[in-house]
Description:
The protein is 26% helix and 33% strand. By secondary structure, the chain is an alpha+beta fold. It folds into 5 domains: 4-178, Rossmann fold (3-Layer(aba) Sandwich); 191-275, Translation factors (Elongation Factor Tu (Ef-tu), domain 3), CATH 2.40.30; 294-365, Elongation Factor G (Translational Gtpase), domain 3 (Alpha-Beta Plaits, 2-Layer Sandwich), CATH 3.30.70; 371-480, Alpha-Beta Plaits (2-Layer Sandwich), CATH 3.30.70.240; 483-595, Alpha-Beta Plaits, CATH 3.30.70.2570.
Amino acid sequence: MKHIRNFCIIxxxxxxxxxxxxxxxxxxxxxxDREKQEQLLDSMDLERERGITIKSHAIQMNFPYNGEEYTxxxxxxxxxxxxSYEVSRSIAACEGALLVVDAAQSIQAQTISNLYLALENDLxxxxxxxxxxxxxxxxxEVTDDIVDLLGCERDEIIPASAKTGLGIDEILAAIIxxxxxxSGKVDAPLRALIFDSVYNPFRGVExxxxxxxxxxxxxxxxxxxxxxxxxxxxxVGTLKLKQFPQKEIKTGDVGYLITGIKxxxxxxxxxxxxxxxxxxxxxxxxxxxxKPMVFAGIYPVDTEDYEELRSCMEKxxxxxxxxxFQPESSxxxxxxxxxxxxxxxxxxxxxxxxxxxxxxxxxxxVPNVSYYAFTNKEPDEILLVNNPSDLPEPSKxxxxxxxxxxxxxxxxxxxxxxxxxxxxxxxxxxxxxxxxTTERVELTFxxxxxxxxxxxxxxxxxxxxxxxxxxxxxxxxxxxxxVKVDVLLNGNTVDALSALLHVDNAYDIGKxxxxxxxxxxxxxxxxxxxxAAIGAKIIARETVKALRKDVTAKxxxxxxSRKRKLLEKQxxxxxxxxxxxxxxxxxxxxxxxxxxND
Length: 598
C-alpha cells in the first residue's frame, strides 16, 4: 500500500487539466506512440470540440522513483459546476490533488469552489502554475495570488507547461513525496466507494471504485449498501488505457467491476460496495441521490417520432443515470417528455447528443426549475411543480417557494458596478465582497436559481468583457411572490410558452414575449392577437396584422357605398377564417423567449 498514490487534478475550465493529464501519461510511459492523441482521457467528440470534460475518467500509471516502483491512480474529474456532485465523489476517493492555475488567467471561481471541496476531504494540495511559456503569462503575480489563497510557501508552487512538458518530472516527484499513501485496514470487511460508472453495450454497467478497507476478488458475492442489492463480481481489474483483469483489488487501490447490471440507475455514484456475507457496518459518508435542478420539455418535431424519441432517451439514460424523464403532452406540441437536468450545460449536452448520436431533431421548451406550491386547503400539503402548467389556480394558492443559490463571481475591479447591477436586476442580494488582490474582486450573492437559467451567464460575460468567472451552490428553498404568465395566440393558451415569473418582472417580460412573438410568427389571412395573461387578466397584447387582398381595386371612382360593401364582405370572411384558423408556431419562437434582451 505504501507504493500507491491516489490523486486528482482540479482546475477551472480551460486551465489545461486534460493536457496536463496527457503529459503525465506520456512521461510515465502509460501510452504508446500509436495511442497518443490530444485530450486522451476525453472520449466523446463533444468533449474534444468544446474542450470540456463531461465524464470523469480514471487511469493507472506506473512510475519508478528512487529505485522503487510506484502506482499512481489519476482520478480525472469534470470541471463544470453542473457536475459538482461527481467531482465531490472523485475527490473523496483521493488523498491528494494537483491544483492547476493558468499563469495568464490567474485564479477563477471554479478553482476556488473545487479547492474548498478538496480541503473539506483533507487532501494534500500541490499547486501547479500552468502555461508559464505563454507570452501573456504573468507568473510572479499569479504566484502571489496562489500564496494568498493557500497560505503555502512560494517554492512549493511548481511552474509548468503541459504543452511543452516543462515541470512534469517535478510534478510526479511531488505526488510521490507529498501525497500520503492510502490508509486502510487490509483485514477489515470490504468497503469501497463508487466514484463513477459507464455503460458498455456488451457487458452492462462498468463500475469504477476505490477500495477503502478489505479487498475485492473475482467471483465474490458483493452488495451495494444504498440500493441493498447483491451481485457476483464477474470481473475485477485495474484501469490502464485498456482494462486489465486481475484476481483481486486490494486496500487503497482503484479498479473497475463488472457484474452484468443492465440498468445504469442501479449503480449510484457515491454508493458503498461491501461483501454480501460479511458486510461493513459503516457506509462511506456523503452519499446522496443526484437531484435534477433544471426542467425542460423535449418534443419530437414530428409527432410520429414519439416512440423513437422514447427509445433514444432510454439509451441515453443508460449512459447518463442523472437524466430523468417522464412522458407529458402539450396542446401546442403533442406528445413528448418532461426531462430533468443537472444544469444548463447538461441540457445542452443531452440535446446535442440526441442530434448527433441518434439523428433526432427535437424541440426544447423554455427551461425552468422546480418549485414547491402550498395550497389553502391543507397548509402542510406540498405540491412539487416542475411544469408551470401544474401550478394551482391563484385562488387556491397559499404561497410558492423557489430554490435559491449562493453565487460566487470573481471579476476585475473595473467591472464590479455592471456585475452588481446585473445580479440585482436578477433579484440577487449581495452577501459579501472581498478583494482577492487590488485588481480582482470576489462577489457573493444569494439569488433565485430560476433567474440564472435564462440568459444570465451570457450577459455576465458581456458586462465583464469576458473576465468574470461564475460558480454556484444550492442553499435551499425560500418563499417568493410568483405568478404564472400564460401566452395566448388567437385566444388559445400555448402551454409550452407558459412561465412562472416574479410579480415585479411579470409585466415587462410578458410585454417582451408578445413583441418577440409578433416578429417571429408569420402573417396569416386573418389578424392574430398575441396576449400575455396572469389568470384571467390580460397584461400585454400585440397583433400580427392580416395579409389582405385589395378587393376595392376594381372600383375606381363611383359611390363609396360600393367600396364599403366589398370591404364588409371581406371582413365577414376574415372573421369566419379566424374562428377556424390555427396558428403554426415556428421552433425559433420557443427559444426566443430565452433571449428576450438581445
